[in-house]
Design brief:
Elements (H helix, E strand, L loop, with lengths): L1 E6 L10 H10 L3 E5 H9 L8 E3 L11 E6 L1 H6 L1 H4 L6 E5 L11 H13 L4 E11 L9 E2 L2 E5 L7 E7 L2 E8 L1 E5 L7 H4 L11 E7 L9 E4 L4 E6 L5 E5 L2 E5 L4 E14 L6 H9 L8
Parallel strand pairs: 1-2, 1-4, 2-3, 4-5
Antiparallel strand pairs: 6-7, 6-17, 8-11, 8-15, 9-10, 9-14, 11-12, 12-13, 14-17, 15-16
Catalytic activity: NAD(+) + ATP = ADP + NADP(+) + H(+)
GO molecular function: ATP binding; metal ion binding; NAD binding; NAD+ kinase activity
Protein name: NAD kinase
Length: 292
């Protein structure tokens, strides 16, 4: 059995703990490989010594691995989505960020998680993803997102117009700074900041949330993720910003964007007590009341 370790090459509070994480993995009897750029960073900082196998995005056969361990925050874990692709390989998120909503496992819990991985006695949250298609094939083969798709104005202070169709029926024409199409996983991220609802994973929905809409009657709407959305953007600018999680590109006026559910799930290993509802309570202070 083999584990892939992924991290970003910048300073975080867990970098100094990587040798201990590596030691725990070896103690549990797993072989491993470290993301090449992260390995180079750790060596430059004299954090990691010894010879370890490495992998890069271009040469990794992720199906050779039992799981991938992400060391960082939620943003780091989101970066692993394009490495995992449709392989079904599960991901463990060790939190070194600030909130750690989906990357929530501490080092103290990691050894127990490894034991469940070794015995096969672990459970995964199957998280749905969005798939985005355009005529120019903007995002290539990595045209999917775990959190959200966002359309946003770019290089202008003027609002933009986004026409949205749901299963070819007009849903709305949004005059706003932008539009978010969020999965349940992403509903606690940008969507929440813009007044969108929290959606529990597994509910088979997505939420369409406008960003600063110029209309008091326009509110977020929850739709089935079995439906298909078609978007068309226009405005005073020559181009607009389109993002999938942390990846971004430009979209041009009247280009059409097709959004649907991806045909695979992202599998997230979550120990007991790390479910979505408990994360809402512990990370977002959901339901916090001094009377209780």
């Amino acid at each position: 059995m083999k584990i892939a370790i992924y991290g970003k090459p910048y300073k975080n509070r867990l970098n100094e703990s990587v040798p201990h994480i590596v030691e725990l993995i070896e103690k549990a009897g797993f072989k491993m490989a470290i993301y090449e750029r992260y390995s180079e960073f750790l060596r430059e900082k004299n954090i990691l010594s010894g010879e370890y196998a490495t992998f890069s995005r271009s040469d990794v056969n992720i199906q050779d691995y039992t799981c991938l361990v992400s060391i960082g925050g939620d943003g780091t874990l989101l970066d692993t989505v394009t490495i995992i692709d449709d392989s079904g390989v599960p991901v463990i998120g060790i939190n070194a960020g600030r909130l750690g909503f989906i990357s929530s496992i501490s080092i103290d819990e990691f050894e127990d998680v490894l034991e469940t991985l070794k015995t096969g006695n672990f459970e995964c949250d199957n998280r749905s993803l969005l798939q985005v298609e355009t005529a120019r094939n903007i995002f290539g083969d990595t045209n999917f997102a775990l959190n959200e798709l966002t359309i946003h104005k770019k290089d202008t202070s003027s609002m933009i117009k986004i026409e949205a169709f749901l299963d070819e029926e007009i849903l709305n024409t949004y005059w706003a700074d932008g539009l978010i199409i969020s999965t349940p996983t992403g509903s606690t991220a940008y969507n929440l900041s813009c007044g969108g609802p929290i959606i529990v994973p597994g509910s088979e929905n997505v939420v369409v949330t406008p960003i600063a809409p110029h209309n008091l009657t326009v509110r977020p709407v929850v739709v089935s993720n079995h439906s298909k959305l078609r978007l068309r953007v226009s405005g005073r600018g020559d181009n607009f910003l389109i993002t999938l999680d942390s990846r971004s590109d430009v979209i041009y006026p009247d280009e059409e964007i097709y959004v649907s559910r991806a045909p695979f799930y992202f599998r997230l290993i979550q120990p007991v007590g790390h479910g979505f509802i408990s994360a809402m309570r512990n990370k977002l202070a959901w339901g916090l009341d001094k009377r209780n």
